[in-house]
Structure formats: C-alpha cells, structure tokens
Write a structure and sequence with these properties.
By secondary structure, this protein is α+β, with helices and mostly antiparallel strands. It folds into 2 domains: 2-52, SH3 type barrels (Roll), CATH 2.30.30; 58-142, Orthogonal Bundle (Arc Repressor Mutant, subunit A). Helices cover 34% and strands 23% of the residues. The protein has helices spanning 47-52, 57-65, 69-81, 86-92, 97-109, 128-136; strands at 2-6, 11-17, 21-25, 32-36, 40-42, 84-85, 113-118, 121-126. The strands form 2 sheets. The chain has a 5-stranded antiparallel sheet. Strands 6-8-7 form a 3-stranded antiparallel sheet. A hairpin with a 6-residue loop joins strand 3 (21-25) and strand 4 (32-36). The longest helix is centred in the middle third of the chain and has 13 residues, at 69-81. The chain starts with a strand and ends in a 30-residue tail after the last helix.
Length: 166
C-alpha cells in the first residue's frame, strides 16, 4: 500500500496499479475507485499517516500530543473551569513547577492551550481547537458553558431515586 494524490491534491491509498488506471481508496470514506495513472503521483507520506487523516485535525493533535492521563485531565479541567492561573493549577495537583511548565509549553506549542491573564497573573485557557477535540472524544459536553441545569458530579447521590422506590 502506498500514498498517492490526484491532480487536485486529494490523497488516496493505492491498492492496485494497472497499465492505465489504479485502484485507490479514499481514506475519508472508504470508497474505492479507479483513477487514471496520469492523474496520480506518489507522495512522501506513510500510508498509515494517510489513513490517520480520517481523524479530525483537532483530535489528531490531541492524540499525538497528550501522552498521559494527568495531562488529559489538565485539559479537561481547563475546559470545564475556564482559564486558570498557574498558581491555581499548581495547587490543584501534584505537578512540580518544572513538570507543569513543560506540559504547558508542549500543549501551547501544539495549539491546544493559549496563555492568558487570570486575576492579574499568568494563566492558560484551552483553544477552540482543543475544545472541539475534547467534545469529539466525549471528554466534555458541547455547549457545557451554556447548560446551567447540568448536575455537578459531586452533587449526584444515590438518594436521588424516584419516590416509588422508597
């Protein structure tokens, strides 16, 4: 299997090449079709990288940048609680200052976080790309900020059962 692109720049996975046309698969939708060979050119990209393009850009960035649960949790907290100052983030978890700085730098470089000011101190917020990625994987709800009737996880108790069960 090889990665190829047609004369419009659309990328495909090459399945079979014959004298005049090649059988290709569109990694976005899985459709297979024949394309004239003179319209195709090889690209310098692994077929697996081409296949990975079926995942949205924001989710690919999240998956390739976040390598542990603590970092993912940091993004979820920032998405749910809004921008937070560095001191607040340090107080919230057992990150040492240098470890947190490293994580924040990597996440900012990847476009998942943006530096901001919170109560007069340096802070961070998730970017729109990060928010879309977290929504896509189900880590946060869409329109979470607008849902005032959402039940806080800590307020849901087993005593909240219908009256007929008591």
């Amino acid at each position: 299997m090889k990665s190829v692109q047609d004369d419009t720049g659309k990328r495909y996975l090459l399945l079979k090449r014959s004298e005049h046309a090649s059988l290709v698969r569109d990694p976005q939708n899985g459709n297979e079709c024949y394309v004239q060979n003179d319209r195709l050119e090889d690209v310098d990209e692994s077929p697996l990288e081409t296949a990975a393009r079926t995942v949205s850009g924001p989710v690919r960035t999240l998956l390739t940048t976040v390598h542990d649960e603590a970092t993912l949790g940091l993004l979820v907290e920032l998405a749910e609680r809004g921008p937070l100052g560095v001191k607040t983030i340090l107080d919230a978890d057992a990150f040492c200052e240098s470890d947190l700085h490293g994580r924040l730098t990597v996440l900012t470089s990847a476009g998942l976080l943006a530096e901001t000011e919170v109560a007069g101190e340096r802070g961070y917020r998730v970017t729109d790309e990060c928010r879309r990625a977290l929504e896509a994987i189900g880590a946060i709800d869409e329109d979470e900020d607008e849902d005032e009737d959402a039940v806080e996880p800590s307020s849901a108790t087993s005593s909240e059962v219908p009256d007929s069960a008591s």
